[in-house]
Every structure is written in structure tokens, then in C-alpha cells.
Amino acid sequence: MRHLPSILLLMLTWPGIACQEPDDPSVEGGYLFVLSDLPDGPEHFVAVTFDPETIAQLEAQLALPEDQRRLFPNGPIDRGNGDHNLDWNWHYVPSQWELAEVTIELCDGRPQYVHDNLDYFLDQVGQYCPWGAYVVEKLND
Predict the structure, then answer these.
(1) What are 51-78's pLDDT values in tens digits?
(2) Maximum Cα–Cα distance across the chain
């Protein structure tokens, strides 16, 4: 659990995660991801899916030790937080993203970079694939 202290701090200080009830529809189908090992600390984001295959992959990743979770989200994003993606100005289109092992580098980046360059990601790149991200928690257990 290499990032447990950071995750606990986030949950205590970030109301978007810590205060939501498991049956809150805004996190229905939600999974918390972290992009870690960044110079100024980890960045977290939430993605929602109802796709049974993706859910099975996510659950398999969560069963692994944290340092062995290698699959990362890849798919189209849209404007706004989608009522689930914390304070970001973007969100994965629910159930239209998947988990990947490898993607093109063009769609890689930090959540903050996507936030700051949203028009570029929406109009030019068309998807988001943070290579260093991994799933840390299912939010509505």
C-alpha cells in the first residue's frame, strides 16, 4: 500500500470523496484512480462504468497488490465533472472507456494537464490514457 498515507489524507481533506454515501448516485459505478509518483504528489480522479467486462477487469486489478496494478483507463472524455469526477472540469464518458496495457503516447498526461488543456484533449486527441494511473478503490461497495 505504497500510497495509503496519501489516499487517507485525500479522503480526509477532499469532501468529494470523504463525504459521499455509497448509495449516492453520483458515484454509482465509480472507481477511484490515482496517478502517482508525481513531483508534487498524486492526482486522483474518478471514472464510472457499468460495462460488465470492464468491471470484471477492475475487480481483478483491485485483487492484486497495489504495485502490480498495471492497467490504466483509456477512452473518450467530456466537459464537466459528470457529477462524479471530483473537482476536475472533465470526466470519462461513462461505460465508454476501457482498461489498457498499452496506448499511444499522445493521450497520456496528468489529470491537471487535461484540466488545463481540455479543448486540446477534446478537439485534437479525442481520448485520455494516463499511463501511470491505476485503480485504488471501488467507491460504491
Answers:
(1) 999 999 999 999 999 999 999 999 999 9
(2) 37
Q: What digits encode the pLDDT tens for the residues 79-110?
A: 999 999 999 999 999 999 999 999 999 999 99
Domain count, the chain: 1
Per the structure block, which three cell numbers stand in for 83?
457529477
What's the rounded Cα separation, in Å, for the pair 66 and 16?
23
Contacts of residues 65-68 at CB distance under 8 Å and 24 or more positions apart, as own/partner, are 66/1, 66/2, 66/3, 66/134, 66/136, 67/2
How far is the C-alpha of 24 from the C-alpha of 39, rounded, in Å?
33
Please tell me whether the overall predicted TM-score, pTM, comes out greater than 0.85 for this model: no
In this structure, are residues 118 and 90 in contact, taking their beta carbons and an 8 Å threshold?
yes
Q: What size, in residues, is the chain? A: 141
Range of the domain at 109: 4-138
The contacts of residue 75 (CB under 8 Å, 6+ apart) are: 92, 93, 96, 97, 98, 127, 128, 129
Question: 106 CB contacts (<8 Å, ≥6 apart)?
Answer: 125
